[in-house]
Amino acid sequence: MKLFFITSNPGKVREAAKFFEPLKIEVIQLKREYPEIQADSLEEVVKFGIEWLKKEIDSPFFIEDSGLFIESLNGFPGVYSSYVYKTIGLDGILKLMEGIEDRKAYFKSVIGYYDGDVHIFSGVTWGRIANEKRGEGGFGYDPIFIPEGSEKTFAEMTTEEKNSLSHRGKALKAFFDWLKENI
Ligand SMILES: O=c1nc[nH]c2c1ncn2[C@H]1C[C@H](O)[C@@H](COP(=O)(O)OP(=O)(O)OP(=O)(O)O)O1
Ligand SMILES: [Mg+2]
């Protein structure tokens, strides 16, 4: 089976491909721009994206929207994670966190699969914001996020290790469990 993943982010594709590889499902990246609305939740962003894309794409496809929610910043950058990453970046986040003791944060991933109907799957991983950047792997905020129960940042992990703990790994698992029952 093949799954079309509409995203501009090669890191997401790498993680999804690694997840599905042993399950004999091939992940194929399609690069199509779609509007990411300013909404209160990742779910709304995904649902709007699907409504936009479904007119253009003939086969079933999925998209994913994710974000980092920092508790002491009231959930910032949250749904704006992509914009904040491109503007103030990791150094900007570390600067905002200077002197803040409560470093709790979570990553959330929302996958939307369209096969004529919309199916939503999500995953959350709690952790904390590191005091400095560590590691070369992964992408995005990985060098500054330490998942609960670990001393390593996501960027210090292999793709398999990150998938076993991450928000995206959990959302992909929920997606796969649904596919098994429904395909
Ligand atoms: O596991 C992750 N580890 C580190 N950083 C992450 C992760 N997951 C999302 N992020 C960051 C990347 C981006 O700055 C923002 C999500 O934005 P988001 O719009 O979903 O992704 P994107 O624009 O990179 O790719 P896409 O073309 O699929 O929209 O949070
Ligand atoms: Mg995006």
Structure description:
This protein has 183 residues and is an alpha/beta fold. It has one domain: Maf protein, CATH 3.90.950. 33% of the residues lie in helices and 25% in strands. A six-stranded mixed β-sheet has the order 2-1-3-4-5-6. A hairpin with a 3-residue loop joins strand 4 and strand 5 (118-129). The protein is globular and about 50 Å long. The mean pLDDT is 97. Bound molecules: 2'-deoxyinosine 5'-triphosphate and magnesium ion. Residues 36, 82 line the site of magnesium ion. The site of magnesium ion (MG) has 2 residues, from loops.
Quick structural summary:
This protein has helices at 10-20, 42-53, 81-87, 89-96, 159-165, 167-182; strands at residues 2-6, 26-30, 61-70, 104-114, 118-129, 145-147.
User: H/E series, N to C?
Assistant: EHEHEHHEEEHH
CATH architecture heading: Alpha-Beta Complex
Placed side by side, the strands forming the largest sheet appear as 2-1-3-4-5-6
Domain module count? 1
CATH T-level topology? Maf protein
Briefly, what CATH class? Alpha Beta
Task: Please give the share of residues in helix.
Answer: 25-40%
How many helix segments? 6
The low-confidence parts are: none
Number of strands: 6
Rounded to an integer in angstroms, the radius of gyration calculated over CA atoms is 16 Å
Averaged pLDDT: 97
Beta-strand proportion: 25-35%
The description of the largest β-sheet is:
6 strands, mixed
Globally, the shape reads globular
**Are any ligands bound, and if so which?**
2'-deoxyinosine 5'-triphosphate, magnesium ion
**What's the end-to-end separation, in Å?**
10 Å
* Class of secondary structure makeup: alpha/beta
